[in-house]
Specification:
two-stranded antiparallel sheet; 454 residues
Length: 454
């Protein structure tokens, strides 16, 4: 369950979760930073992604932190993560997301004091406060008990824990314990939750108009981080198996119900009781064909966890990604049935997207596509395409940068007409940081894939 040392005092609270202080947490694998010093070759996409991340960092550390959120510490020494109403997404996803973007910038050497206007030490302090305050508030830590087991909790835990893992050598034992306890609690919870399906094997909608691709993949992301971060934990293999299950189910198409290909020890069809993506790679969400939900498949960034630790990524994490990505490029929509002018979702020569049935969030959102483009370029989801991931990344990341250049403080969106999601600026930080981390890690430890049994 955990390894006890003479300098640690651990109190069991739920299942395998423990509050540990002293020199505990021996099962956490630290990132071997000293072995990762390779420079990243410069090109247009690399420089654009880097600049968009620095702009997001600038906004996070200045206008967002001090003027919009007005964060202050209370008597515990942690930030008061308050938000009107009872929506924990707004209270915890947003600071966790900004911490994720900042930690990646700080640890990969891209952080630039001149660009952000904040000294490195100040940025580091704020980042640690953001991530540890999120972890501190998780119910398993018996402090404020403000969140945990929420519908989206695995995503918030992933962002905060990944940031904490990167900054591990800067955290005290108490904060390390808070982070670990949060991860274990959310990962263990998911062991008991079977992956959901949009439609069953007969094609009957179980969640009409609402693919479960997004939820399945952020759950897989957290489970993967837990397994890689804590390889000696008693549940590490179970977490990885469940991550693989969530991923295969999340990315499954109707044709996979007859798919005999062996993936992690058994035929693909044996993993499935339904599917989440329509042929040939179309995602339905908000009751429409929704390109954004092709592109928010955050599992495309899973190699940044496995490669960072120097281990191969399970092959499940590239399962059907080529089909989902190529659908953006190749699937045509007839204007007699769909919104005019028809055509493909990606538009050659333009960063703009064609939405066959409209968009529930806005029409000037480019960062999810830029992130997926970068992954397609690096991990070859785009094989055989005349216009591949690098080409599209230049367009979509360039559009993000053009938006940011309108504002002195580094934020991206003009108003809710461009993007109506309340966490749109925090989303920019997570996606452009993921894109940058994919680039950076690939030049340190190139991704490899494994199809071992799980």
């Amino acid at each position: 369950m955990y390894m006890k040392t003479s300098l640690s005092i651990c109190l069991l609270i739920v299942g395998y979760t423990a509050i540990c202080f002293g020199s505990a947490l021996p099962y956490v694998r630290e990132v071997p930073w000293q072995s990762m010093k390779n420079p990243v070759p410069q090109n247009n996409v690399v420089e654009t992604v880097k600049k968009t991340l620095l702009n997001a960092n600038k906004f996070a550390l200045n206008s967002w932190y001090t003027e919009i959120k007005k964060y202050e510490k209370d008597g515990t020494g942690y930030l008061i993560l308050d938000y009107p109403g009872a929506d924990n997404e707004m209270r915890y996803r947003y600071p966790a997301g900004m911490a994720f973007g900042l930690a990646i910038s700080l640890k990969t050497g891209v952080y630039d004091e001149l660009e952000t206007g904040q000294p490195y030490a100040e940025a580091l302090q704020k980042t640690i406060l953001l991530l540890t305050s999120v972890a501190h508030d998780h119910r398993t830590n018996k402090t404020r008990c403000a969140w945990g087991d929420d519908w989206q909790a695995a995503l918030w835990a992933y962002y905060a824990a990944y940031a904490g893992w990167l900054l591990w050598n800067h955290l005290g034992e108490k904060d390390r314990a808070y982070v670990v306890n949060m991860v274990i609690a959310e990962a263990d919870r998911l062991l008991l939750v079977p992956p959901p399906f949009y439609k069953d094997k007969a094609g009957t909608a179980l969640f009409p108009g609402d693919s479960k691709i997004e939820e399945n993949l952020w759950n897989a992301e957290l489970l993967s981080l837990a397994s890689v971060m804590m390889p000696m934990h008693v549940n590490s293999e179970r977490w990885l198996h469940q991550a693989i299950s969530y991923t295969i189910t999340g990315l499954s198409l109707p044709s996979d119900l007859q798919n005999e290909d062996i993936l992690h020890g058994k035929p693909v069809k044996s993993w499935l009781n339904g599917y989440n993506v329509e042929e040939p790679g179309i995602v339905i969400n908000h009751h429409i064909i929704h390109p954004l939900y092709n592109a928010v498949s955050s599992v495309v960034n899973v190699p940044i966890v496995f490669s960072l630790a120097g281990v191969c990524t399970p092959k499940a994490f590239r399962f059907n990604m080529d089909k989902i990505y190529r659908s953006l490029i190749n699937t045509p929509f007839d204007s007699s049935r769909y919104e005019k002018p028809g055509g493909t979702m990606y538009i050659k020569g333009s960063p703009n997207l064609y939405y066959p049935e409209g968009s529930s969030w806005g029409f000037e959102i480019y960062d999810p596509f830029a992130n997926m483009d970068v992954a397609a370029w690096l991990y070859q989801f785009d094989d055989g395409q005349d216009y591949g991931g690098y080409y599209w990344a230049g367009l979509h990341a360039g559009a993000v940068l053009t938006q940011q250049e309108r504002f002195d403080d580094g934020h991206t969106y003009l108003d809710n007409q461009e993007n109506s999601y309340s966490g749109k600026e925090e989303a920019i930080a997570t996606r452009m940081a993921s894109a940058w981390m994919s680039i950076w890690v690939e030049h340190q430890r190139s991704v490899c894939y494994t199809n071992t049994n799980h």
